[in-house]
Specification:
13 helices, 6-stranded parallel sheet, two-stranded antiparallel sheet, globular
């Protein structure tokens, strides 16, 4: 069976997968939102199972929540033929997969992503992990899900803000790997986007990259475009109790890293302006002070992609083409964020 299945009938696909697997125990991991809005679509099609509910949000993607998940599995006597179904967004997929692969040295797991962000980004590539001491995905491993089942029906449960957050990764995929795709989305009103086609296209783009480089030694690093600065912004704001959504932080990061690409002579001024204006037409500006920028630069030094305190980023060589492990200095990050702040 294909690892990633895009369907209009998630319940039947999941039911068939579980029947074929002959699992001894089934757990379904949800948060309060997916328990309310998404679980009812699957509940009656599942075999006897254990429901594990955690609190939603990046702030709960930590070791304490993992302990609570492992405790339920232990109390329910899950053995190594058990399986975890992660029903939710990126936090549920990252943490649920991490807990599954570390419980008794690893049980099976299926991701059923319910946000656009998780469907186009977290669904492929096998990155699992949790945050630690306010650093994003600081503890984790690479391990592909046994299966990913994507159904656009779940997008109907999202707020407009959540939908836009997920769209940041769609923008990223096109900017780094498909100039024609960028032209297409840039010239289509947001309200008229065909989500099923967009999901299929984004999953294919990402899978093409991750298949070449499963453990991020080379080309896979282009998927980090927008994330070196974006993660620093996200971590900083979370620490200051001003948390924003992941895609909103990546949007900031993409504009800043596009500016860094321009400053280093890779893309031209017209491309920088095009990228900046389009992203700002989708996302509200995030307010950052000079003091904020200084601290965000310090966070960027902690990024796990760095080597020997050198900040390494994925930058655009041109629209539709990116390169990786390009060193940028704190001063260059400072300038790129000042560019972002100066936009009106």
């Amino acid at each position: 069976m294909e690892k990633v299945t895009i369907t209009g009938d998630v319940a039947t696909v999941l039911k068939n997968t579980l029947q074929q697997g002959n699992f001894t125990n089934v757990a379904v991991l949800v948060d309060e939102n997916t328990h309310r809005h998404c679980y009812p679509l699957l509940r009656d099609h599942l075999p006897e199972h254990t429901l594990v509910q955690i609190k939603s949000g990046e702030i709960h993607k930590n070791i304490e929540t993992c302990v609570s998940i492992w405790s339920v599995l232990t109390q329910q006597s899950f053995d190594r033929k058990g399986i975890m179904i992660n029903l939710g967004g990126g936090v549920i997929g990252d943490m649920g997969g991490f807990c599954a692969r570390t419980y008794k040295r690893g049980i099976s797991f299926i991701n059923v992503p319910t946000t656009l962000l998780a469907q186009v980004d977290a669904s492929a590539g096998g990155k699992l992990g949790i945050d630690f001491e306010h650093f994003k995905n600081h503890i984790g491993l690479f391990s592909e899900p046994d299966q990913v089942i994507i159904d656009p029906v779940f997008l109907q449960t999202l707020s407009a803000r959540e939908l836009r957050s997920g769209y940041a990764e769609v923008i990223k995929h096109n900017l780094i790997a498909d100039k024609a795709g960028w032209e297409k989305i840039k010239n289509t009103p947001f309200e008229q986007l065909d989500w099923k086609a967009i999901i299929q296209h984004s999953v294919k783009l990402k899978q093409n990259v991750t298949d070449q480089d499963p453990t991020e030694k080379g080309i896979r690093k282009i998927l980090n475009f927008g994330h070196t600065i974006g993660h620093a912004v996200e971590s900083f704001l979370m620490q200051r109790n001003r948390a924003i959504l992941h895609g909103e932080a990546v949007a900031v990061g993409m504009i800043a890293e596009a500016q860094a690409s321009y400053a280093l002579g890779f893309i031209n001024a017209a491309s920088l302006e095009e990228i900046t204006s389009y992203i700002l037409s989708i996302f509200e500006k995030v307010l950052l002070s000079s003091e904020d920028i200084q601290t965000i630069c310090e966070y960027a030094v902690q990024d796990k992609k760095n080597k020997s305190n050198r900040i390494l980023a994925a930058l655009l060589k041109e629209v539709g083409n990116a390169s990786w492990d390009i060193e940028i200095s704190p001063a260059e990050i400072d300038q790129s964020l000042k560019y972002y702040v100066a936009q009106t």
